Amino acid sequence: MIRRFFLSRVLAFAAAILASAAAPAAEVRVVSSGGFAAAYRALAPEFERRTGHGLVTEWGPSMGQTPQAVPARLARGEPIDVVIMVGYALDDLIRQGKVSADSRTALARSGIALAVRAGAPKPDISSIDGLRRTLLAAKSIAYSDSASGVYIETELFRRLGIADAVKAKARMIPAEPVGAVVARGEAEVGFQQLSELKPVPGIEIVGLLPAEVQLYTEFSAGRVEGSRAPEAASALIGFLASPDAAGAIRESGMEPLPAGAAK
């Protein structure tokens, strides 16, 4: 059954590439959240080489109030063909009629990790108690304005019983990698998806959150309604979900997901 599933996925990807290659070369405009950025940067040149299509890529969070956020871009009518973002935020756009429902494709999932500035001592976060002690002792805590940060702020601190104790020293970072803030010494510890922390210089990743309080975030892709290059957009989504993309996804710190994975 597993073999049949992967065979059908390969055949679907091959069909999309062939259909795309038969059409004139197109320009595909993509907006991706930072969580999938490292994998995308590794895979984009290969897609362009195989298909002849060109990719024009910008970055923005899956949610939040910044102008760069994917929902804000679509609301003001930016010409976008493909969005890559947190799965449940993509579902909101599908309900609003801004992204094609039948194009929704699960790509990968990533866990939340903690980082410190390069050269700083690495605290013990291998257990719930160790994580709690680390956060209580930290002078400052940073987290993102996307899915992982919302979880940290609204659930994790409460589950650890430290929400009031850390409130004054914890802050959400809008429109910038949390790792960059930690690397500059503006926060002693920082939380973000592992895939978003890995590319940032000047930090050391302590590790993933303990399993009991871990939250895995799914990243998915969808074709924007009214896309000017729908065939090329679908081919890109198919390529990113194909077995050929799995190695780059793993290297970026994420786990590839099968198409049709649970939301």
UniProtKB/TrEMBL annotation:
Keyword Nucleotide-binding: no
Pfam families, per the entry: SBP_bac_11
Domain of life: Bacteria
Residues making up the signal peptide according to the UniProt record: 1-25
One Gene Ontology molecular-function label: molybdate ion binding
UniProt xrefs under SUPFAM superfamilies: Periplasmic binding protein-like II (SSF53850)
Gene Ontology biological-process annotations: molybdate ion transport
UniProt entry tagged with the keyword Membrane: no
Alphabetical keyword list: Signal
PANTHER family tied to this protein: BLR4797 PROTEIN, MOLYBDATE-BINDING PERIPLASMIC PROTEIN
Name of protein: Extracellular solute-binding protein family 1
Source organism per UniProt: Methylobacterium nodulans (strain LMG 21967 / CNCM I-2342 / ORS 2060)
Phylogenetic lineage: Bacteria, Pseudomonadati, Pseudomonadota, Alphaproteobacteria, Hyphomicrobiales
